[in-house]
Model the fold of this input.
Amino acid sequence: MKARLLVAVLATFLVFGFGVQSMAATTIGGSLERDFTDDTVWYGGYLRSGGLFKLELGASQPVSSPSGELKLFSYFLADLNLGSIGINNGSLNLYFGASPDMTLDTSTPSFSVSNSSAYGKLGLQLNLFPFSIQLQSKGRFDLSGNLTNLFGGLGIGLTF
Done:
């Protein structure tokens, strides 16, 4: 019972403390991420759409060995507006969410969804209409809650 009350208070604080006036916008862009666990660099693209709750779809693959294997993601994100910037109706947003661990192999053709791991994402996005710049951190977790991979990245996109 105490845990539910604590979650309700925290959610209320986040919603009213940061504001829920996130603009409904669609962003298409590219990202570059570094996996700090096995020291690889990943590049990919994404499409993010929605208002307070956004859906982000995309894929990435390693720069060093561009094979037929793509990591797919479909994040369900909460997007909180931290404040407005007086330049071009700009804003700074905090977003966080999760995605299942999915893989598409175009060489064999096969698609798989992992039943033992998922991704969590936390980031900041600076919107300077029509451009957006994001800094993000992403982690791959097993279902016991242990961090197996840690990513840091930068994304640049167009918002319309």
User: Anything to note?
Assistant: The helical segments are 2-18. The first helix runs from residue 2 to 18.
